[in-house]
Amino acid sequence: MTTHLTGHVSGKVMQKSILITGCSSGIGLASAQQLYNMGYRILAACRKPEDVERMNKAGYTGILLDLDCEQSVQHAAEKVIALTDNRLYGLFNNAGYGVYGPLHTLSRQQISQQFSTNLFGIHQLTTLLLPAMIGHHEGRIVMTSSVMGLVATPGRGAYAASKYALEAWSDTLRMELYHSGIQVCLIEPGPIHTRFTDNVKQSQSDKPVKNPGIAARFTLGPDDVAKKVCHAFSSAKPKTRYPVTLVAHALSWLRRLLPTCMMDKILRG
Asked: Which residues are annotated as catalytic?
């Protein structure tokens, strides 16, 4: 493990700290491992106490965090600020989940919970932690968006809406922080082998929304996403957006080039 990623506070050398949410598995865990090997101190936020303990045993600093709970976000932010002596270099807003099903089958509460985790909790956590970043004139805020933040498909409307909103929120934050030294990046994965699909909440258990069979040909692993995350945190000139997988790259271009009627025909499947 390299240890050159440091800063100075009152004559002390401090390892740069990154908070990663949704760190128990998948993209979050793969990113934690790669960033840790690069020399960063990892604050690993998880929703379940047993996963927090597992993060501690792995050499990270476990943080209990439920983005759907306002008090949990408040407590987690206070702990991060205390652990980092009010100097946080990076925030990876990775946690999230999907609610799938035709829009007419979803209740207001289900839509609200989808946005609570995928946007409202991220907003609260980020704004609470910004004072620990903005005064030091450096830092990175990285978001896990999705190809569903670029296009919407039948059965994934609630999830896509939350990711569309996250994209707009991130674009605004990037412009508002332009002179702060903090850079904001979006990771836009396509199909990835993680536990995300297993944790999707289906509104119609007898008619679950599934990925088309052809998607399996273009599916990558979480390590492929983590490489992009590492670039976003370590590069002197990080990209604004990082599409991951051929599907994400293709849809990013197609939505710019094709008329809406043709895109609808493609996305209807």
From this structure: 159
DSSP annotation string for 78-115:
HHHHHHTTT---EEEE-----EES-GGG--HHHHHHHH
Domain-wise residue ranges, the chain: 6-267
CATH architecture for residues 6-267: 3-Layer(aba) Sandwich (3.40)
pTM of the model: 0.91
210-228 CB burial, b ≥16 within 10 A, e <16: eeeeeeeeebbebebbbeb
pLDDT at position 4 is 45
| C-alpha to C-alpha distance for 72 and 3, rounded to whole angstroms | 31
Q: Block means of pLDDT (10 residues each) for the chain, length 269 residues?
A: 48 79 97 98 98 97 97 98 97 96 97 97 98 94 96 95 98 97 96 85 88 74 96 97 91 86 85
